[in-house]
Amino acid sequence: MRTQVGIVGAGPAGLMLSHLLHLQGIDSVVVETRTREAIEATIRAGVLEQGTVDLMVETGVGDRLKREGFEHGGFELRVDGEGHRIDLRGLTGGRSVTVYAQHEVLKDLIARRLEDGGKIAFGVRDTSVHDVTGSPVIRYTDAEGRPQSLECDVVAGCDGSYGICRQAIPESVRQEYLRIYPFGWFGILAKAPPSAHELIYARHDRGFALISTRSETVQRMYFQCDPNDRVDNWSDDRIWAELQARVAGDGFRLKEGEIFQRNIVPMRSFVCEPMQHGRLFIAGDAAHTVPPTGAKGLNLAVADVVVLARALENFFRRNDTAGLDGYSATATRRVWRAQHFSWWFTSLMHRFEEVSPFDARRQRAELDMVLSSHAAQQVLAENYAGLPLR
Ligand code: DHB
Fold first, then answer.
1. Distance 294 CA to ligand 1 centre (A)
2. What are phi and psi of 345, to 5 degrees?
3. What pLDDT score was predicted for residue 43?
4. Which of 72, 78, 199, 208 to mutate to test the pocket of ligand 1 (most atoms within 8 A of CB)?
5. Least packed by Cβ within 10 Å: which of 163, 178, 218, 254?
């Protein structure tokens, strides 16, 4: 088998890249270890920046998002029980975010790729990439157990944090930056009506909590927890009591309901540079991870592949390699901006167990600044709504 761009991973980066390349007449094949059903059922974050929404709409995969997503022109910062609205639209000159779950984005992209005749090999095993500085080949065992070999001009490594592609960049050229946070997020999905019109990011002495939504009948909520805790340690009553305590104040109460999904996510900041080696280009979580506060992960993956798709278009159409040569430098600039924001918003809102009395007071002063300074809110809003894609 032969293709122009061999894509490892059918997540947001891989699928969006395949879609953008198709629109430019560039052929690609996506290989993915998980099944389509598993991908379409995996619960992840759900906030799309304005730029991500615009891209989906402009490239013809935004119909359902426009119908079913919830556009939010602001969110609430809740500090020790007192709510403060961050007016995203007002502070950014009209930008907003849209709450639409990641797996819904993936469903839309998969459906469109298949409609357009795209090739996605789901359920593959033993994927490996070879000869990325010469004539790249992706080898794998397909879902029927047959060994396959895919020759390509370029490999796009979109296989997430635990993927194989990053490892194909030799250690001697790979620089990795990692920060692990001493807490995780306990996430739930509950059958309940929304408790508020907009998302709530709550800072409390018991720890951070986030009240998000999925629909009129399903809500997504998170609370800061011990990263080594287990979901079985938490009864429904205990979960609700913890969430209620962290948002309590000015008479506010969450609407409770049956909890039907729960998971604990660890929190880390990670960047691998460069995001290229020879004809291998890595994108999305394969190259970087952000802590979830602010939901930058999917948006950053999309931003990477916008840069990569344009560079590949120049390469295949005009044999111009300047875009590909500059891919890592261009992409990492935005990556580090998002890293900074995600680290900052996480640090601002979470409870740190082993913090010095000085740092505890300093965190309060920083919150005070955000709540009282228009300029500080503008910085928060600009970064939250997302930097422009182009
Ligand atoms: C959601 C997740 C986030 O990390 C966030 O900052 C906002 C919302 C969510 O899953 O809805």
1. 7
2. -65, -35
3. 87
4. 199
5. 178
The tokens for 161 are 């944090």
Give the span between the Cα atoms of 156 and 29, in whole angstroms: 10
Per-residue pLDDT of 128-167, as tens digits, reads 999 999 999 999 999 999 999 999 999 999 999 999 999 9
Catalytic amino acids? 72, 201, 292, 296, 384
Distance 46 CA to ligand 1 centre (A): 5
User: Quick check: CB of 101 below 6 Å from ligand 1?
Assistant: no
Helix (H, G, I), strand (E, B) or coil at 147: strand
DSSP calls for 65-93: HHHH-EEES-EEEEETTEEEEE-HHHHHT
Residue indicated by tokens 């999305």: 284
103/213 Cα distance (integer angstroms): 14
Query: 29 near 121, Cβ under 8 Å?
Result: yes
Q: How far apart are CA 360 and CA 138, in angstroms?
A: 50
What is the distance between the alpha carbons of residues 333 and 207, in angstroms, rounded to a whole number? 31
Q: Do the Cβ atoms of 385 and 98 come closer than 8 Å?
A: no
pTM of the model: 0.97
Q: In whole angstroms, what is the distance from residue 69 CA to residue 73 CA? A: 13
Q: pLDDT tens digit string along 242-251?
A: 999 999 998 9
Q: Whose alpha carbon is nearest atom 3 of ligand 1?
A: 295
**Tokens describing residue 224:** 């800061």
Residue 321 — very low, low, confident or very high, per pLDDT cuts 50/70/90? very high
pLDDT tens, residue by residue, 343-375: 999 999 999 998 999 999 999 999 999 999 999
| Residue identifier of the C-alpha nearest atom 6 of ligand 1 | 294
